[in-house]
Amino acid sequence: MTYAIIETGGKQIKVEAGRFYDIELLTAEPDEKVTIDEVLLVQHEGGVSIGQPLVAGATVEGTVMRHFRGRKVLVYKMKPKKKTRKKRGHRQEITRLLINSINLNGEVLAYEEAPTTIETPNVVDSSVVEEIAAE
């Protein structure tokens, strides 16, 4: 199993090719390719490349799937016996990133093809509806 540990948005994330991850907001449009150069560790077939702090020549390529907002986080502050209360909410901006490949020194270690279209399985044929209505 090939994986890499990347740093994005001030957080470190373990990523694998073919999976998607929710990370801090990126300045890229949906369906746009993104290359992340801040790779801290790459593990491939038992061999581990550890950076000091970054692995030289390692990149992770991904595709932005969509942007959305996370769940609401409530911040409630209260001082007892003072009748002082503050309630605030916050929703973090999130980018869903599909990891396409993990590269080391120009060599592709792990690659996963991004899906081009999503089929909708719940499409009903009009002839089936007419047959049911006739019965």
TrEMBL record:
Family annotation (InterPro entries): bL21-like, bL21-like_sf, Ribosomal_bL21, Ribosomal_bL21_CS
Cellular component terms (Gene Ontology): ribosome
Family annotation (SUPFAM superfamilies): L21p-like
UniProt entry keywords in alphabetical sequence: Ribonucleoprotein, Ribosomal protein, RNA-binding, rRNA-binding
Name of the protein in question: Large ribosomal subunit protein bL21
Encoding gene (name): rplU
Function: This protein binds to 23S rRNA in the presence of protein L20.
Family to which this protein belongs: Belongs to the bacterial ribosomal protein bL21 family.
Domain of life of the organism encoding this protein: Bacteria
PROSITE patterns attached to this UniProt entry: RIBOSOMAL_L21
PANTHER family documented for this protein: 50S RIBOSOMAL PROTEIN L21, LARGE RIBOSOMAL SUBUNIT PROTEIN BL21M
Subunit relationships: Part of the 50S ribosomal subunit. Contacts protein L20.
